[in-house]
Amino acid sequence: MKLDATLSAVVTGGASGLGLATVKALRAAGVKVAIFDFNEDTGRKAAEETGAVFCQCDVTSDASVDAAFAAARAANGQERVLVSCAGGGNAVATARRDKNTGEIKIFPSDQFESVLRLNTVGTFRCITRAAAGMMTLAPVDGERGVLINTASAAASEGQMGQAAYSAAKAGIVGMTLTIARDLSREGIRCNTIQPGIFNTPAMARAPAQMLEALGAMVPFPPRLGRGEEYASMALEIIRNTYLNGETIRLDGAIRMQPR
């Protein structure tokens, strides 16, 4: 698929981190972009800086997602690209013993479910809306659209305390090929990027010594990933029509340790 001003894209979680890097790369190629983000202040700021359109969106809500897609299409036309970067997690052990009291505590089920709702269900909710919209378009060079999801190295090697996050991201990996097959007759591709440790705003809040140690864990290059590298992969997926149903690790060959 050609990247130019005739193309419209939606990026969820597009106000910061990997999403914002992708917005910038798409805008640099001339693509019309709508930023979906929960945070209105950072969303509007990112839109002003990049020339994108901001649509406030809570990916855990049908009504919010439907309204955001309607606003994006009113501004930019029907999207042919969806990049899903919205997500997050928590760090809670499956079951643990309190060091002081010896009390045994378990991972609250509602907290586990909330991580799946945000990451797995939120991604799928946006996919269904985007795919339905893409199906109304005439194919260009044989394809109607491209869906790009964001998983994590935790989907394969979740660290201690990442049970919910690992499950949520593994769910995204698991549904990638099935969605690609579901939409193959419509000329819509679906792929997932599985990042390792990236220098996102959330990660940047960690102490410098910790960031240096994390970077040293990566075989090569021995550093944290950069948002531009994720964005470069996303753009290549859009361009490469034969790339479909695939999960691509982007991690410098790291395999996460237990902690």
TrEMBL record:
GO MF annotations in UniProt: oxidoreductase activity
InterPro entries xrefs: NAD(P)-bd_dom_sf (IPR036291), Sc_DH/Rdtase_CS (IPR020904), SDR_fam (IPR002347)
PROSITE patterns cross-referenced by the UniProt entry: ADH_SHORT
Pfam hit, one: adh_short
UniProt keywords, alphabetically: Oxidoreductase
Keyword Oxidoreductase attributed: yes
Family: Belongs to the short-chain dehydrogenases/reductases (SDR) family.
Record protein name field: NAD(P)-dependent dehydrogenase, short-chain alcohol dehydrogenase family
